[in-house]
Write a structure and sequence with these properties.
The structure is a single chain. The chain is mainly alpha-helical. Helix content is 71%, strand content 2%. It has a domain of 210 residues. It has a two-stranded antiparallel sheet with strand order 1-2.
Amino acid sequence: MGPDVLLPIFVAFPLIMSAVAALAKNKIVHDVLALLIPAINLAGGIWLYNYTAETGPLTHVIGLYQGGTGISFMADQFAAIMLITTMLVALVSNWFAIVSGETRARFYTSLSLVLITGVSGALLTADLFNFFVMIEVMLLPSYGLIAMTGTRHRLASARTFVLVNLAASTLLVLGVGYVYGVTGAVNIASLAGAAAGNGPVTVAMGIVMIAIAAKAGVFPLHTWLPRTYPSTSAAVMGLFSGLHTKVAVYMLFRIYVVIFDLDARWNWFIIVIMIISMMVGAFAGLAENSIRRVLAYQMVNGMPFILIMLAFTNDEPRYALAAGLMYTLHHMITVGSLVLTSGAIEETYGTGTLSKLSGLMRREPWTAAIFAAGAFSVVGLPPFSGLWGKLTIVFAAARAGDERSWIVIAAIIVASFGALLAMMRVWREVFWGRPMQRFPEGLHIRGTLIAPATALMAVSLAMFIGGGWVWEASLNSVDSLLDVDSYVSSVLGDDPIGIPDVATLQGGN
């Protein structure tokens, strides 16, 4: 029995513990499980990162079936570093849920653990259909989490969330079915290079990519995200911000590298879509009236900064993808901190509406400092992780040395300026101005409420100080992503069956 048998446990253990949480009536049990399970998967992700750094990809096929015919789990450094960061955000979001009292709702913990189950499975699967299954495992508890309080506004937002994600999931499973129809396989390793130069496979995989892009909140399929995420509790929005969209980013990277083989024909299409998405995310938040609605557009703004790097992979794929990954890690941590900071304000003052808050800089200096740090990081200012995130994106784009570089760098500057304006507006409305008179002088945000956001900003600061280490980890992770031969060999084994002849598929174009 080798270490590969541990891979399914990343999925099975949270699922089993979610059942335990659902049956348990003791809040202490709920709180312990809410922290313990993501912490265990976080520690497991660190182990996976170190182990795969030494041995290469780690694969396990359920039932020990031959490659290409069973349910395959695969871990490499790229999957491991995403698992580490998603579990960190989940851990801190559940910490906030505990201190804000949200775990008093009996099923919060069990639903959050099912969400963690789906995230872990989506990051470790090596099969398109099983990715769809894990996405559904993520979505089912999300429907409950987003509507947990049952308020009229949340139920309306839950309806939008359900309808959009059901439509995207339907499109995803149709795309996967089409892929199987034209290739006879849905195992990712089996499809290596299949969409590069083959019309039917490209169309089929295009449907899959559109569905995943909708789940990532990319223009023009982004409007559901700022309408639904801010209507949840801050703890749930923190979970969603670090898990849902980033799982989609992970799979878009994996598919584009393995199945599309970094097809350069899509470069300009990617650039146009992502620049529009940047501008919408950067400036649309200026029209919103609450802190978390502004932050929701910063989530929309972050996705194109990551995905636009796919348009530069034909020049320097290693550096372009590493820049996208480094920005992903920064964005998960920073936005999570900002969301939880706004949650601490809402829990204390009963509102996150900009017009109802003012003067918090004097009343809540520590909370103001944490929010300012997050704003600095989102915009790309030191001394936080956003500086290196933005710079690596700009440097990777500049390496191309053609018109794409000029256009994308100009768009990044403009979008960053839009994000700065949005964050300055929140600061002016909420933290500057006259002290609020309608709240008693003794009312202040508890230290336990702001502690989770503080912890994430400490991580962002550490990522700035240790920027060289984070960049090296990103490069190593991307090297494992780009090593398609090792991926295919690990997943399919020495005697794969049912594998399409890619050369024949490409010849059909």
